[in-house]
Amino acid sequence: MPKLSPRRAFIAVAVLSTVFAFLVLNHLYAPYQKIWTPISKELYDVISPSSYRYILNQPDLCEKKNPYLVLMIPVTLKETEARAAIRKTWGHESLTSGVSTLSFFVIGQPVQDDSTLQQQLERESEEYGDIIQMDFVDTYQNLTIKTVMIMYWLAKHCQRARYGMKIDADTFLNLPYLVNYLQARGESSREDYISGSVIRDAQPRRNKLSKWFLSEEIYPDTSYPTYVSGAAYVFSIDLASKIYLASRFVKPIPLEDVYVGLCLRVIGVQPVYSTRFLRLRNHFEVRKIKYDRCTFASRITVNGFTPQYLLNIWYDFQKARFTC
């Protein structure tokens, strides 16, 4: 049998993968979903992991550590202080006794090259082993690309983990509370599970001055599916591969959290509210609220933290387990 050239082999794999994704999604979810059509190759190339290469990677760490939970933190090259603060606070592995967690910072390339910051990042990678960098342009508009890369990386390298979490760097995370919460849910959150600050009945912003502007040409629908705020959400690890597969059927848009919601709609998964006291208190707090030790002790996440603010409150927050 004649050998295929590398180019033809790549095309063959891409075609087979698309056909496989089409069959899987439309067979498994056929009882309650419409038939989904793959987007064009030109559109898919924008978000396809095969369009980008790794600059820095940690492909074997999940296999070695066998984590219960993997935290994926999107940051930019210049956010050195944020990475340092997270490593000293909620990203530290020692916070959850008896349960292994891992944290990774996911980074693209800046619009303008900065060799000094890049060299510093490479030193961080050598020292901490927590940097994943790919060569897509790292902008707010490209957060959807970064999110698909996160899902692909988890699906490829962390299949034995129980949960993944995407969490922004300006967020406070109560990691022991989150782990206890997930363990208490048991089997109900082992598959097709995603939770965060759930947003329903949202509509696209058509005002061009809005940060979240989305034109009718890009997104003609008048409403969004149910989705979770991109600030922080946790999901069963099986959803990483399912969302990645669903991305073959969803036209890219620059709002990454809405995009994940569109992928969830393809696979027939609804986000789960995470609340206490008759749904009056959201565990994933999207507002910036004043720090109070015992208030934060009953939250999973809180938004609006600078690196210094996070460091300032962290020592006091460690007393919560004894006083709240």
From TrEMBL:
This is Hexosyltransferase. It is an enzyme of class 2 (transferase). Belongs to the glycosyltransferase 31 family. Keywords: Glycoprotein, Glycosyltransferase, Golgi apparatus, Lipid metabolism, Membrane, Signal-anchor, Transferase, Transmembrane, Transmembrane helix. It comes from Triplophysa tibetana. GO terms for molecular function: N-acetyl-beta-D-glucosaminide beta-(1,3)-galactosyltransferase activity. It is a single-pass type II membrane protein. The lineage of its organism: Eukaryota, Metazoa, Chordata, Craniata, Vertebrata. It holds the Pfam family Galactosyl_T. It is found in: Golgi apparatus membrane. Its main location: Golgi. GO terms for biological process: lipid metabolic process; protein O-linked glycosylation. GO terms for cellular component: Golgi membrane. Pathway: Protein modification; protein glycosylation. Its EC number is 2.4.1.-.
